Amino acid sequence: MSDHAFATRAIHAGQEFDPTTGAIIPPIYQSSTHVQDGIGGFREGYEYNRAGNPTRSSLETQLAALEGGHAALSFASGLAAEDALLRGLLAPGDHVLLGNDVYGGTYRLLTKVLAPWGIQTTTVELADADVIRAALRPETKIVWLETPSNPLLKVIDIAQIAEIGHAAGAVVVVDNTFASPALQQPLSLGADLVVHSTTKYLGGHSDVLGGAVVFADDRFFEQVKFQQFAVGAVSAPLDAWLTTRGIKTLAVRMRQHSENAQAIAEWAAERPEFEQVFYPGLAAHPGHEVAARQMSGFGGMLSLALSAGPAAARAFAESTELFQLAESLGGVESLIGYPPEMTHASVRGTALAVPENVVRLSVGIEDVSDLIADLESGLQRVAR
Ligand SMILES: Cc1ncc(COP(=O)(O)O)c(C=O)c1O
Question: What b/e readout covers 279-306, taking b as 16+ CB neighbours within 10 angstroms?
Answer without folding.
Answer: bbbbeebebbebbeebbebbbbbbbbbb
